[in-house]
Amino acid sequence: MIRSSGIERQLQGLKIDDPDEEPSDAEVWRAIVAAGKLQGVYLPASYTKESPMNLAPPKFSDGTDRSLVRRWKALTGLGATSLERDLYYLTPYLTCERCNGLVFLDAARMRGFKVDGRDTALFPDETLVKCPGCASTVEYRIGAHDLLDQIAGSRAELARMLRSRHRAAAVLRRAYRFYLRRARGRAVRCEALVRGLLVARCGAVAASVVRGRLGRRKARTCRQVRVIQAAHPMSLARATRGDGDVWGNRRVPDWYKRELAGPTRRRRVFWYNSSRQVELLYHDYLELCARLGFLPPRFVVEANICEIARRIELREARLVTAVQARWRALTVQRLLLAFLRERVRWRQVRAAAVFRICRVVRGWMVRNDAVAARRAEIFRRNALGAYRRHRDAKRTKQTRDLMCDALRAAYVQERARERTARYCGLVHPSAAAGNKMRAFEISAYGSTTVADQATELTASIAADLKAQRSDKRAFDDRATVLKVRCDADSTLKTYHDAELRARSSRLIQQLSASHRVLSEKPAALLRHYNASINASSASVKGGRRPLAHV
Known about the structure:
Residues 1-22 are annotated as: Disordered. This protein is mainly α. The protein has 14 helices and 3 strands. Among the domains are: 1-60, no CATH class; 214-348, no CATH class; 351-494. Strand 1 and strand 2 form a beta hairpin.
């Protein structure tokens, strides 16, 4: 219940600026809502500012439950006037529209929310009780009402709805049973089809297995027939003997005895006497069995063919082994003869190589002794001349060094005199077109000492160069002199020829490495090389001498 005093206080708070002004309808509605919120009362959502309402006076007391008034003083020690309710509620009863049950709310607890007189309070949540008839809180109606007529109408409608649902369920059951019957029929037909396909597949697999076994059996027998057909008549005649002996009067090998051990050793065979039967056997042995009425049976014919082919193969293996043994014997004999001949030739080649090595070693030893003796003789002969040339060269070098020092001192002295004369004004560069040294030389103070010493030094150097060129030319001409001397002496000629051959071989290797392929003979190649060396020696003084002579 909302008090009028609370609404007036809210209006005064809204009209602080002008308290005497008449409030509007919107302001009155705002004051009512604010007063209800302050007292913990919330208006229903269906209430608006146009809805009719009555405001209770301040001293209005609730007399709904007078037992609370009598027990209030004993419970709280307060007076009965403290039951003035600030809480506004419609009714403490709730009616269930489903089962017509009545629910009573705890009004005593609601009245005690603001007993202490506080302006604000935190109210605990209260769980809405369930209906004792249907245990539901969805279809509550505020207040105490009698809803039996409405519930009876709802039950009749519910009965009609249930009947229609039962009829619809029966239709659905019939449709689903028909669907299940069709699905079962389809499954039975599919099972029968699958079983038929499985039986057909099993029959096909069994037939293929039988055909495979018969085909392999026929292929094996046809292969043995081809062996008999390709065999020699003598081998066939020996294989068709009753005892099956394929070795004649020879000793039977152990491996053959092991091969024929058991029931196959005494197996008897037969053969056809008619040529037409033999031709038909080679063409198709099954056709021959059919024409003979399968007498003997097919398995007997196949076993007979396999036994004859086995004997033929054993006979051919024996003959091939004998031929291979004879051929290996002939081959070994031929290879042995070739080996003996090659061994003799190998020994001859090694002996020839040894003889050549011995000859080369003896020649090398003799040449070493001759060369050492020759070098000692030449050293003794040229020792004095070498010492004289060494002393001459040393003396020449010392003399030239002295000449260079004297020329350098004379040049420095001449430069100092020229500078002194020019500074004293005795000479002037304009006398020789700006050349200072030339002007000093043509003056009365100049001399030719520096020029004479320079000419003397140049002449000495030119004489030394001329002597060196003469020695080089004499060394180049010495090859011809040595060749003439070697031709006159047999020992020197042998040594000279050996050296030329070694040098020629090295030169040929060098030219082969540079040209990759030799298109000319070695002698022509050496002649061309020597000709090119001679031409270069003629064009340039002090040229190279040939590396080899042919």
